[in-house]
Structure formats: structure tokens, C-alpha cells
């Protein structure tokens, strides 16, 4: 996809926005722009037919870490009433477009800011933003913070509540509808949380190997201990070769019989990942693939439910 520099995008927005409908006045309702369809799907569930939701990244092909904005993306952000970003270095292209649009009235929800303090990770996030921790790697990750917060069911519950409140403020006439749709969403989400809590007694203390930190929050919720070597994860996330000694350490760990589960991101490939998956299969370690963005044809709640189902099925535990 052809990209356009932010400066050029800003000029284009100035030229086009003069004839564009101003935020909050569209006949289709409130305009919401989400960085990915993960947040777009939740936004649609909460807003219903009173909002027009645009997800800049949809499907499992594009990588949010390296995505470059188009003129169409920039115009959507410039005309949005609410912009939803993950933050934490994950979708920094949104920040560039917000800066270019200069829309001071736009409500911006940064979901990673809602993250609970998981073993100090939220603190690490704050430190990294302020410069106290090494900042970003080449893929935009903030060192010391797992930015994949949509795998944290509690954070997503907080996000849904924040969004419903923002919608109600912008559109008081729709507040009752937003709250009703929020209640329906959170009821289903709470069922998932309760299920995860119910499975902890089966998974508590079991060791998991994750080729990337994408599913870490969900694994933690289920009680798993992630034992993946940090240097292995850092190399894979940074898009660089895993050092031979680190790869050997990872493979020996998988082959040792200590690891109960291996989870890998289907959207990322590479020889080090393939070697880890192969080693797991050769040593009868269950392998569960997951994705970083919403699979086609699925809603967020269905997606998280299917991930839990996959882990339960792989380990022959619980009742699906």
C-alpha cells in the first residue's frame, strides 16, 4: 500500500476538511476510528447503530507495528469524534495522524493507559514513556511493557466502560442505548473471565513457552508461568536473528519436558519460530496458534472464547 508522508497528509487534510462534515454532525451518527479491528469490533458492539466505526487495520495481513498511514486514513482521523488506539508503541501511526490533524476536540482513548498493574508492567510503561527505561526498538515496542493489552480481559472491560462513557457524553440522547449495549458486552466478557478463573486450578503453575508476548495476559489469567527466555522474545519481537546460544537454550527448554504448552503467533514467521514449533511437536508439547489481530468473520468475544477453547482442548482440561 502506497504511503504518504505525514507532512503531506496534513496539507491534504487542511485542503479537504474545509468541505468535510465536521465531527459530531454526520447524519450517520458519531464517527469512531480505531487503529485495528479488535477495537473497532468492540466499539461497534458498544455504539451499535448510533456510530460509524472505521478500523484502519482489518484482518491478519497488515502489521500494526510497521503500518504507514494513507491519505484516506488521515482524513478519517481528522473527521473522527473518537479515536481509539492501543498505545504502548504498538500503533504509533495513529499518533502521527492525530498530530497532523490538529483536532483538539477529538476524544482519544489509549487502551494501554487503562492497563492494570500486571507485575509492574504498567509502571514500566510509564517509566518508558518518560525516558527512564530504554524507549523503543525498531518495531516500536516499549521495552519492559507488553503492549498487547487486548489479551487482558480486565483491560478490555475497562476500555468498554470508558468508551460507553465517552459516547454518552458526546451523544446524551443515546446514553441509555450505549449503557444497555455495554451491559450486554460486559456480561459476556465477565463469563469469559469467570471461566478463566475456573480453569486456574488446572493450569496454575504449568509452564508455557510463547514465541512472542502476544498472548501473555491471557496465559497469566489462566495461571500459566511463561518461561520463554527473554532474549529469545526480544529478538523475535525486534525482527532480528536469535543468538545461537539463546536459541539452543530455548530448544533445550522445550525438549526438557518442563513446558506444558507452546503458543505462537500465526502472523509471524521465521526460522527460530519454526524450530521452536517443530521441537514442541517432536516432543509432544501441545502447540496452540493464536493471532495478533481479529481473524476474519469473528467478533472479539468469540475470538477470546476460541483461544481459551484451544488451550483447554490442547491440554485435555476442563469442559469447553
UniProtKB/TrEMBL annotation:
Pfam families: ZnuA. Residues 175-202 form a coiled coil. It comes from Leifsonella bigeumensis. The keyword Signal applies. It comes from the Bacteria. Residues 119-139 are annotated as: Disordered. It is found in: Cell envelope. Residues 1-20 form the signal peptide. The keyword Mitochondrion does not apply. Keywords: Coiled coil, Metal-binding, Signal, Transport. This is Zinc ABC transporter substrate-binding protein.
Amino acid at each position: 500500500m502506497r504511503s504518504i508522508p505525514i507532512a503531506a497528509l496534513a496539507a491534504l487534510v487542511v485542503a479537504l476538511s474545509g468541505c468535510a462534515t465536521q465531527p459530531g454532525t454526520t447524519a450517520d451518527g458519531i464517527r469512531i476510528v480505531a487503529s485495528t479491528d479488535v477495537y473497532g469490533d468492540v466499539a461497534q458492539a458498544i455504539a451499535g447503530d448510533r456510530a460509524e466505526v472505521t478500523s484502519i487495520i482489518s484482518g491478519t495481513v497488515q502489521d500494526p507495528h510497521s503500518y504507514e498511514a494513507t491519505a484516506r486514513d488521515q482524513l478519517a482521523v481528522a473527521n473522527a469524534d473518537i479515536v481509539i488506539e492501543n498505545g504502548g508503541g504498538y500503533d504509533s501511526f495513529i499518533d502521527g495522524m492525530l498530530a497532523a490533524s490538529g483536532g483538539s476536540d477529538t476524544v482519544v482513548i489509549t487502551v494501554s493507559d487503562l492497563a492494570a498493574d500486571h507485575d509492574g508492567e504498567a509502571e514500566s510503561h510509564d517509566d518508558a514513556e518518560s525516558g527512564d527505561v530504554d524507549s523503543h526498538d525498531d518495531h516500536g515496542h516499549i521495552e519492559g511493557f507488553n503492549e498487547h493489552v487486548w489479551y487482558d480481559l480486565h483491560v478490555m472491560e475497562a476500555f468498554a466502560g470508558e468508551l460507553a462513557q465517552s459516547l454518552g457524553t458526546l451523544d446524551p440522547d443515546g446514553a441509555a442505548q450505549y449503557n444497555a449495549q455495554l451491559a450486554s458486552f460486559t456480561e459476556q466478557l465477565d463469563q469469559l473471565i469467570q471461566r478463566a478463573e475456573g480453569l486456574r486450578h488446572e493450569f496454575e503453575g504449568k509452564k508455557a513457552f510463547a514465541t512472542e508476548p502476544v498472548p501473555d495476559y491471557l496465559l497469566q489469567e489462566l495461571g500459566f508461568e511463561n518461561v520463554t527466555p527473554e532474549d529469545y522474545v526480544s529478538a523475535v519481537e525486534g525482527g532480528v536473528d536469535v543468538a545461537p546460544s539463546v536459541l539452543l537454550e530455548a530448544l533445550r527448554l522445550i525438549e526438557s519436558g518442563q513446558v506444558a504448552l507452546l503458543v505462537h503467533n500465526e502472523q509471524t514467521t521465521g526460522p527460530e519460530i519454526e524450530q521452536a514449533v517443530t521441537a514442541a511437536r517432536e516432543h509432544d508439547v501441545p502447540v496452540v496458534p493464536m493471532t495478533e489481530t481479529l481473524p476474519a468473520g469473528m467478533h472479539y468475544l468469540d475470538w477470546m472464547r476460541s483461544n481459551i477453547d484451544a488451550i483447554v482442548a490442547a491440554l485435555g482440561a476442563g469442559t469447553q
